[in-house]
Amino acid sequence: MYKPVDQRNAISIDEARKVIVDNIESVSLKTEKIPTTKANHRIIAEDIAAPHDFPTFRRSGYDGFAMLQSDLKNLPANLKVVGDIPAGADFDRPLVSGEAVRIMTGGYVPDGADIVVMLETTKMIDNDTVQITEIQKKDNITQIGDYFKQGDTLLAKNTEINPGGISLLSAFDVQEISVYKKPTIGIITTGSELLNPGEKIVNGKIFNSNGPMIRELCTENGADVISYTQIKDDPEALKNAVNDVLGKCDVIITDGGVSVGDFDIIADLAKSSEKLLFNKLEMRPGSVTTAFIYDQTLFFGLSGNPGACFTGFYLYVEYALRLMQHQASRCLECLGTLNAEYTKTNMYDRILRGQYSFKGNNIEIGRVGGDASGNLNNLQRATCMFEIPRGKSITPKGSVLKTWLLPFK
């Protein structure tokens, strides 16, 4: 019979996350060049500098008339309209005293002109004469380089680019940028009790719900799942599954096989790893969540219980995936106020799935659905997780608790 790993040393959630931080460099990501238009939500790997001043020409801030301020000393002033400059048009000579040119917002302000008078404060006397009757405090001209000078940083290294950033880079015709490669993931779900989709339901068997969840959670967090395998509780099958993806993935996530029973296969695999990060946590559910580095690959062994799997992913896997991409976790850690008494006690900190709402200046938190680790009824509805501190006392209503607001909810 397959025997369990010899010893587990429990550490706290914070200690486990620090271990991840301290070791993430050994599995850091390489970079690649990609088209700017394909870079939404990718992480920039180097500072991007402005290749030129922006704007590159003096631009009008309003629809109106460009002219010389010296012609406006005595109002009303009548000026000859010598041209029309719509957006995108040029003007082939400087303006001189006594002249004005019709101009559109964003249009090129010709040399010689040093003010754009808004259309609303002008009056056409005839087809080629405009009258100005009001003094304007601003010149309404955006000067060359007003927004960016050549060499200014457009987007800094380690920025997660969004559509606004793509717009900015496109305005400078930056067509290609350097980004960190997406973490590549291999998922191995283990369990002799797992049915394949479409199989007949029989006693003792269940359908694989954790695998699809892990796959989508990885994708949501910027990773590429390149391998997805379901195997029975068999050391040789696990060894073969790992060898199939080892060297092809940055991260391998296993689900199941980490319990303290006779078939804790993942925990035993961790014994032979280059660096055991942790194999026991002072938390419920998911105390046997395991992490280690083997052959420069980061392994996570998540619990086969859905609630524990969900919790372990957000506290450790999501945390690591974001760090690998030089980003902070999207789980916003804060303090929440408990909306109802919680009576269960535990020797370890208990992480509950819940929902939150804003009540004035406070975040109110509460349970949603059951808190059993095998219960799936709140995985869809949970918008946060919060920590019930270990101890023998009940947790009263109004308690202020460590809370993680979940992303993508």
UniProtKB/TrEMBL annotation:
EC number(s) stated in the UniProt entry for this protein: 2.10.1.1
EC main group: transferase
MoaB/Mog domain residues: 186-323
Pathway the protein acts in: Cofactor biosynthesis; molybdopterin biosynthesis
Keywords: Magnesium, Metal-binding, Molybdenum, Molybdenum cofactor biosynthesis, Transferase
Domain of life according to the entry: Bacteria
Pfam family, one: MoCF_biosynth
Leader sequence segment: none
Required co-factors: Mg(2+)
Membrane spanning residue stretches: none
Record SMART domains: MoCF_biosynth
Catalytic activity: adenylyl-molybdopterin + molybdate = Mo-molybdopterin + AMP + H(+)
Transferase listed as a keyword: yes
Family (UniProt): Belongs to the MoeA family.
Function: Catalyzes the insertion of molybdate into adenylated molybdopterin with the concomitant release of AMP.
PANTHER family documented for this protein: GEPHYRIN, MOLYBDOPTERIN BIOSYNTHESIS PROTEIN
Protein name per the record: Molybdopterin molybdenumtransferase
